Predict the structure of DUF1285 domain-containing protein.
Amino acid sequence: MAENGDKSVSPEGLAQAAASAAKGGPAPVHLWNPPYCGEMDLVIRADGTWVHDGTPIGRPAMVRLFAGILKREGDRFFLVSPVEKIGIRVEDAPFLATDADIAPDAITFTTTVGDRVTAGPDHAITVRGTVDAPRPYVHIRRGLEALIDRKTFYRLAAAAEIGPDGRAGIRSGGQVFALEP
């Protein structure tokens, strides 16, 4: 729970405010600049698990709702509604891509929170880490990335071709993305 003076906010209250503001569509978090209200004991683990007060959030609908009001500012992550902004921790990337539909020039990723994006100019694939321990990501929205899980990355590598620079890469959305750091 976040605290700011005598006020405190519950995860349910934040979710309810954001859901009503979104009006059935994606929440326009990029337009919201509410006051900072403190930190919430919420962490998104590197394996994609959302944990509040030490307990994994077991309701997928709640996780999806929180994912829809997640905002990144620099290296910090916040849950926002039109009236409040609560800091949270993210161990790696806030999302996890667990599947991909691989076509000749379109790779569409699916995340554990239900986002679907096709890699291309607005949804770049990047690989950090080392050749021995690559960390592949796909951009989801507004500076938020999904870590591409191991099985999906292996499927991408199996579909990759060696480019003129000698590195393995994959094509999607008219772009070629290197699969090596």
About this structure: Residues 45 and 91 are 5 Å apart (CA to CA). The domain at 11-90 is CATH 3.10.540.10 (duf1285 like fold). Residues 1-8 have pLDDT under 50 and may be disordered.
